[in-house]
Amino acid sequence: MKSQIILNHDGVIEYSDNYIEDLMEDIIRDISWRNDSITMFGKTYPQPRQTAWYGDAGIEYQYSKIKMITIEWTPLLKKIKDQLEQDLETKFNSVLINYYRDGQDHMSFHSDNEKELGNNPTIASLSFGVTRKFHLKHRFDSSIPNKIIELKSKSLLVMKNELQHFWLHKISKSTKVSGPRLNLTYRYIY
After folding, report:
1. What is the DSSP string of 138-175?
2. Backbone angles phi, psi at 6, to 5 degrees
3. How far apart are CA 26 and CA 76, in angstroms?
4. CATH code for 32-130+153-187?
5. Is the Cβ–Cβ distance between 181 and 129 less than 8 Å?
6. pTM recorded for the entire structure
């Protein structure tokens, strides 16, 4: 696997173009989507993307007061997991799938620091579909410049070490994006 280190300060981000073939339509065909609501600052809104949670039986995960229980792996999601485990030399037991229908679907600044992910999680993020900008900003040091990574179709972004302690990330709204994006984030839940 050919990757480049994009960030190596208070955590690590590695990025690989063309990591995988275009499997977007094959993945979407077999997914059971959720349209949860999210509460922010005392107001409840429809979550600005569709989601699904697959993995080993009985795994629960909660973020932003949304409780998810795994649906059993599809053969394709399991095959991708097995390949990632081999290439990254780590274990995953679940995948959070996000479907961004167009440029209005987004994700606000956050970190994946829920206790179920452990202290320094490795998260493997696969992207399919239109290119979207992945924004990063340091949580504590505003003198560190923000970073933007263009997540292209078939790419792999790996976040690891203490990254979730020190950095926030988001996918912004964009009027320049008209097509869909599918994102698979493989994780290990304790």
Report:
1. ESS-TTSPPEEEEE-TTEEEEEETTHHHHEEEEE---T
2. -90, -35
3. 8
4. 2.60.120.590
5. yes
6. 0.92
| pLDDT the model gives residue 40 | 67
Looking at residue 73, the DSSP 8-state letter turns out to be P
Helix (H), strand (E) counts: the chain? 3, 16
Percent of the chain at pLDDT > 70 equals 99
Single out the residue of 118, 113, 128, 110 nearest to residue 31, CA to CA: 128
C-alpha atoms less than 13 angstroms from C-alpha of 190 in its C-beta half-sphere: 10
Give me the phi and psi of 189, to 5 degrees please: -100, 130
* Residue where the block lists tokens 């972004």: 157
Secondary structure class of 96 (helix, strand, coil): strand
pLDDT in tens, 120-148: 999 999 999 999 999 999 999 999 999 99
Half-sphere exposure of 50 (CA within 13 A, CB side): 12
- Position 45 confidence tier, pLDDT thresholds 50, 70, 90: confident
- How many CB atoms lie under 10 A from the CB of residue 23? 17
Backbone angles phi, psi at 162, to 5 degrees: -90, 15
